[in-house]
Amino acid sequence: MRLVISAACVLVLFSCAAAYDPLDPNGNVTIKWDVVSWTPDGYVAVVTMSNFQMFRHIMNPGWTLSWTWAKKEVIWSMVGAQTTEQGDCSKFKGNVPHCCKKTPTVVDLLPGVPYNQQFSNCCKGGVVAAWGQDPSAAVSSFQVSIGLAGTSNKTVKLPKNFTLLGPGPGYTCGPAKVVPSTVFLTPDKRRKTQALMTWNVTCTYSQFLARKNPGCCVSLSSFYNETITPCPSCACGCQNRRNCVKSDSKRINMVGIHTPKKDNEPLLQCTHHMCPIRVHWHVKLNYKDYWRVKVAVTNFNYRMNYSLWTLAVQHPNLNNVTQVFSFDYKPLLPYESINDTGMFYGMKYFNDLLMEAGPTGNVQSEILLQKDKDTFTLKQGWAFPRKVYFNGEECMLPPPDTYPILPNSAPLNLLNFPKFIFTMLVMLAVL
């Protein structure tokens, strides 16, 4: 009986913590429905998806949203998005709805659609930036006209069973909840209008639900040790080893080999770690008041270009970042009293696109950090990161006992060397 109770407690704790990220404790995707007008048999609503995650964005091929209607609702029309299937609308004569499915699946429109099909913050192929990277691009929205539904606040039934793919699994959505109506400001900012009814759906992300293995790994090196600590073997699982390609293989030059597949199956370069992304942290130089780190991100996937990529790092000395070269940097403050986490991302039109595997499939930068003499040390792996995230996925770090260590032959304190020579000369003079 105790074993059963213990197992149940572990499952409960695991399920509660699965969607909690210690570096982004408040991160979520909020889906807001604003009823803006009533129709003879339903309503018109504006659906807004806001990505409040600091360093996890929704990348190509974009988001997919679905839900289950509470009654027998249909979608008469949509602007800024579309359903993937129309369903059975045979009972309608004349005016045929856009979708008659009980559980519709909605996707964003692609860039370049006609203006009469566009809506504000739409038509980006479902790609939504992280809030910490670009709040203005962290929103996606569309307009939907619903029929066979309620026509007042009392008769409208909220949709159920929301599901968000971004683009794969990992998000868990809660139930829709009625909230105070959204207030809108007119373009001239002289008048406020109010939604007739508003409800929210909150979706949180769990890496445990998204994938069995990590999607990236970390390797380490330093100026004081020739040893390079590689990514752990099979860090991202070795199930793709049968389908990997050597860097000198003729297969890479085949037509269509770089085209992404619908299920996003990767084509990886054969490595011992079998990860699509490797982050390398190199302790480059040690000055009197500063120290310098070089960071390189390498793409080993021949079928994926990473746009809007982000790199989140936790390290105690990120509270004293002096300069970051060739990356943009923003400190993250998940806990206001602790400033040990930062986010790096590419400069627009320069290196914000991490190309597929190959000669150009990497981005790199250097970081200059000011020392805190009370805490700074090169001993016991202090100079290496505690956690690393790429595109919101936590990367696997090497075991601590494999980190580059200070050579045993190094003097304990080079500043005491002249004093040591002076002492020896005095001793020789006395003798």
Automatic annotation (TrEMBL):
It comes from Vigna angularis var. angularis. Belongs to the COBRA family. The keyword Transmembrane does not apply. It is a lipid-anchor; GPI-anchor. Keywords: Glycoprotein, GPI-anchor, Lipoprotein, Membrane, Signal. It is found in: Cell membrane. GO terms for biological process: cellulose microfibril organization; plant-type cell wall cellulose biosynthetic process. Residues 1-19 form the signal peptide. GO terms for cellular component: plasma membrane; side of membrane. Residues 216-404 form the COBRA C-terminal domain. Pfam families: COB_C, COBRA. The keyword Cell wall biogenesis/degradation does not apply. This is COBRA-like protein.
